[in-house]
Structures are given as C-alpha cells and as structure tokens.
C-alpha cells in the first residue's frame, strides 16, 4: 500500500513530523540509515515555542530569565527551556509507522530511491535529512563539557557570554560561553562559535573553554562527558517538500531549529502551507542578518549583541522566533540598525545591500 507520507531522516525534525502524521491517522513510512541511533546533542528552545502536544516531561530544565553578556550583562525576559534529549526522542513515538533502515539516495516528488536500489512511493515525500556540510556554507561549532552543577558555584545560566576571558587573540574569530542546566545535578558549559566560514575547530574551542574555566576558577577533572557540535547555518530552502534545517527552519543567525520544527510539525503533517509569502521574506531577512554577522569585525560582536539585547523584549522575540512575523522582524532589524554605532551600521548596510523582496511580496506592497 502506498503510504500517505514518506519522511526521509529521523533527526528531531523528521521524527516530530512523522510522529504528528501518525497521530493524525496518516499512513507513514520513515527512511533513515540508523533509525535506532540515540541522539546525543543538547537541544533547547524558548519555552513559548513548544507546542501543546509535546509531553511536559520532555523539558529537563527551565531558565526563567537567562543572562546574556556582550560587554555588559543583560537579562533576557523570556523563559528558556532545555530539553531532555532521551525523553524527547522517546516521546516522538513511531510505533505505527513503517520504519525502513536505509539511506535515501534520491528524492523526487512522490518517490524515494534508496541506497539499496529499492524505491518507495508515497502521496507526499518530505526531505528532513538536515544540511550537508560544504566549504561554501558558514557553520556553527561548539565544544562543551558536562559538569557537576555543584562545581559551578551558583553560576547564572548563560544564553551567551562574549566576555574576552577565553584566551582568544584580538581580531580572531570570536566565541562565547553557553552555560545551561541539564537537570538538577548537571550543567553544560560550552564554548560556541556562532558562525564562521570556516568556523573554529573543536580543538580551538576546547582550548578556549579550558582557558575560560581556569580564569573563572571552575573545578573540573578533564574526564567529564564531552559534547561536540558542528552543523551548517546556511543552505536551507523553504518549500513543501523539505522540513527542518533542510527546509529553512533553522535560524541562520542563531543556529536554532528544533523549536521551530516542533512548533510546525503538526501543520506540515496536515499538509498546510507553512511558507506564506511573509515567512519567505522573513527567511531572507534572517539570511541577511547572518551576512551582517559574518561581515562585522570580530572584536565588535560583543557590542553588536549589547545593542540587540537592549531592544524591547517584543522586538527580540520577533527576530528570534517570528518565523511568519514580517512586520515584527523588519521592525526589530530596523531598530537594531538605528541603534548600532555608525561604523557598525556601515558594515551591516554593506553586507545586506543584496537583499531584495521576492516578487510575490512586491505585489503586496502599496
């Protein structure tokens, strides 16, 4: 029997989509070369992005007002949820789906060709395999250690901390400290390169994290569990046949995608259009925001984020999460641009001059 939906890729986005499609009574086939592989990355999102259908126990910890540092401290007035990776994967059950342990070698409308040579047909076929790495694509990288929370001495959870105590040379590609609770006993301390082409290597980030932790007097043994992160932040293409990072749900200026994918999985499973004209323009505006970040002098990035986190909470929320909020996103970016120092405005303007509204939105403008 031809399934209603074929999902290629069983990362968080693909698994969430397949789970919601099954919950809607659709017949679903999923394709992944290692469908039983356990996820090891730490996933987090803004708490207000989580859909109502997601089990509450998936949230491992909530930070009511995380701290962000540029050159000074800022409280982000928005709850931040750290997810329990194992519980998230278990909650997205696929018991009524047909699971095929193979690699999707070719994807076309209504058909998937497998590496084994077999073919699967379906009413809809959606690519959720993520983004392939390429030297042409900026990447986000991170190196983290999972430590006993007691060794952190009451450290405030940090959304990002750009303070220059990680030993990086002036003018080099910057990185920030990300510090969040994983539960009541453990904390993730992670040195993160937001975006680079090329990005910082794991070895570089490891050295910076150790320097930073030493400078702040954190106790660690060197035997702590380690987390490695590396993924492209460019290359997603909005469209009905792609989902997750591959389908443009990754925020190119932050690297966040899981919250947006969870929030949209039900609508995509139902066959709704989740890419109206406004969403496509927001996607392009965010891509312009990434170009601006890549163009800024490295030593000015903390000042850039000082300016961003000084914006009103509604503006921050619109830019970080307003996937279909064109007015809010444009307003937030405009306010940020005006508030930046003159030398940074010139850099940002030069990096984003190539932005053009797509034709369908031009037709809507007065």
Automatic annotation (TrEMBL):
InterPro entries per the UniProt record, alphabetical: FAD/NAD-bd_sf (IPR036188)
SUPFAM superfamilies in UniProt: FAD/NAD(P)-binding domain
Organism superkingdom: Bacteria
Record-given protein name: Lycopene cyclase family protein
Organism: Nocardia niwae
